[in-house]
Amino acid sequence: MDVQHLTKIAIKAALAAGEIIQKAIQEDVIVVHKEGGNTIASQVVTKVDLACEQTILKHLKPTCKRFDIGLLSEESKDDGSRFKKDFFWCIDPLDGTLAFVNKYPGFSVAIALVDKNGIAQIGVVYDPSTKNLYTAIKNKGAFKNGQPWKVTSNNQYLTYVTDKKLLETPNKTKIQALLDDKISSLKLSNFKEIAGSGAVLNAILVVENAPALFLKLPKKEKGGGSLWDFAATSCIFNELGLRASTFNGSELNLNPKKTSFMNTEGIYFST
After folding, report:
1. Whole-prediction pTM value?
2. Across the strands, what pairs with 141?
3. CA gap 121, 71 in Å, rounded
């Protein structure tokens, strides 16, 4: 399988979806609700999400037939093809829909190619607000706007990246303790918070604001993000030599049998 060729197609698909988002950002957006997890973020969808998915699928579906690739996309029913094929596309047409609706630049497009063992082989993320393109191929490195991407760590504080502000988080005491431990181990002074983006850009912001972390604690309720929220960025993190794991440090399984949610395992992305 020509992963370079497939990466180019995924990039074209992400950029095409990004154009739709850029044109729609100034418009009033009608929000409808769908079946999802126990959070508002997992239940909202707009016509822009659906238009982005349609455009991405126009680019990717021909590869599914040619290379026998399965498909998993946020706004479509899981058809189980990810269990039958050696690889499947894992797509988030518009991650951070709430940010998009609120006109906050925390949304993005994410496309990954994942193998049947749940390991991302390709990761593509496009940020329509900054027009930055982030890509990675397993064992071939990570890139930002076509150039090799390296982590720089100049801050003397820890950056805590989160969708919800710490003070508004039910488990804020536990998270605060985790932040304190991280600050102590890195011999930093304090932490600063970046809140409000979707999961995909949250992971990117961890790299852009090192030393930093983004986490979700394990929980019983459905949610905690889904496979498409972490597939592309896990590939990018792996190629940067950074931690992208479950909360307890196990390798992310991006092709579990019983669910597409990550709530039982939680996540931990850090520099």
Report:
1. 0.94
2. 137
3. 14
User: pLDDT digit of tens for each residue in the chain (271 aa)?
Assistant: 899 999 999 999 999 999 999 999 888 776 666 555 555 455 567 899 999 999 999 999 999 999 999 999 998 999 999 999 999 999 999 999 989 988 999 999 999 999 999 999 999 999 999 999 999 999 999 999 999 999 998 899 999 999 999 999 989 999 999 999 999 999 999 999 999 999 999 999 999 999 999 999 999 998 889 999 999 999 999 999 999 999 999 999 999 998 999 999 999 999 9
Instruction: Find out whether 142 and 120 touch, Cβ atoms under 8 Å.
Output: no
Contact 61, 197 (CB under 8 A): no
What are the tokens at 263?
A: 């709530």
